[in-house]
Amino acid sequence: MIRAACEGCGAAFKAPDKLAGKRVKCPKCGSGVAIPEPEGEGASEGSAEEDSPAAAAGPAVGAAPVAGRRGGSRAGGRKARGGAAKNTRQKARRAAVAPKAPARDDDDGVEELRTRNSRIQRARRKSGLPPAVSAALTLLIVLAIGTGVWFMVKGDPYGEAFGRGIDAFVDAQYEVAIAEFSTIPADHAFYSDAQEQLAQVRAQQAAGERRVDERFADSLYGNITATRKRFVDRDGEGYKDPNYTSSARYLLLRAQEFLDKYPGHAREAEVKGLFSYYRNVANLTDPITEQDVRVELNIRHGSDRWGLTVPSIEALAAQGPEQARVAEEIRAEAISLALADWQGIKQQMEERHLQPGAENWREVATTCKKFLIGVEDLPTAGADAERTLLLAEAKMGG
């Protein structure tokens, strides 16, 4: 038998003499292993000299050689074979304790890492600068540019105005941004940039105004159709109601408002048709009556916008002393309605545990703002002050 060791995994094993000089698979990892040629009789397992400690150690120091050429030659052969066997065993032991090479399955990953490292090294050589130096240069360039801009703006009122305009633009404070950009004179370095920003601000402002107009137009159209359905038409029986004419007058008032504010709107033709139809029932040019104001207050109160009744109340009061007295009574009724509604709102807030400054601050702010819109132009004293305080606290909580 011939001793062999796998160079891949370090495993030592024995192979038959007939496989000498051939390659076989390692029984442990499957790598190819070359079987060495046997060196005389000492390479075989049955050789007594290979396993003998004396043979492995060679002739004793100071021992006299055997007389005769043949005897000397035989002793020299045993010495050579003993040394070869010793070298084979030492190689096997070193292979057994050597660290294992990566398994065959990891070859692709190792090769990929080598390829990637080679590419990185080539790129670094091509750039001509180490990564640390490149990063440092980049940082210096950025600092230089930033420092230059800072010195350009620092102490320059127009440069500071340009910066404030940018901040206002980002915060959607379009009027402030326009005012800041407009202060930069034509001979200033930032003038062209300011003009470009002005164009963008005005475009954004116009787009925002269009979106607001569309929302208000849709809301007003919804109010017109709801008024017609609930207070005027009433499933074809509205004409029998004693408030039919006053309800139709309010419908005409809102339709006229829509046509004046939103000309060219997609609903314009439909609203014009309603206006033409109900103009035969009521006329906006006729003097307003107490019934007209009370009906309007009732309809607006249902939509939480009872404060918008104030112009009609004032129009009634302008007709004479008696009408002024009645108008003040209606105004007091409107304020009472507003205060009662505010108490109801506060009760709902308490029941739902809505507290300003908490996580539900946005809902508190929305509730307070809705009340403000509802009592627009209608003073409600304590309710207004309380609402303002809650609204401020809610905004601080946000």
Mean pLDDT: 75
The number of helical segments is: 15
Q: How many strand elements? A: 4
Q: Order of strands across the widest beta sheet?
A: 1-2
Estimate percent helicity.
55-70%
Oligomer designation? single chain
The geometry reads as elongated
Gyration radius from CA atoms, angstroms:
51 Å
Order of helices and strands: EEEEHHHHHHHHHHHHHHH
State the end-to-end CA separation: 88 Å
What proportion strand?
Answer: under 5%
Low-confidence stretches: 41-80, 95-107
Structural class: mainly alpha
Tell me about the largest β-sheet. Answer: 2 strands, antiparallel
Task: Note the main attributes of this structure.
single chain; 398 residues; mainly alpha; two-stranded antiparallel sheet; two-stranded antiparallel ribbon; 15 helices; 4% strand; elongated
Short description:
By secondary structure, the protein is mainly alpha-helical. Helix content is 65%, strand content 4%.
Task: Explain what this protein looks like in three dimensions.
- With 398 residues, this protein is mainly alpha-helical.
- Among the domains are: 75 residues, no CATH class; 77 residues, no CATH class; 94 residues, no CATH class.
- Helix content is 65%, strand content 4%.
- The chain contains 15 helices and 4 strands.
- The strands form 2 sheets. A two-stranded antiparallel ribbon has the order 1-2. A two-stranded antiparallel sheet has the order 3-4.
- It is elongated, with a radius of gyration of 51 Å.
- The two termini are 88 Å apart.
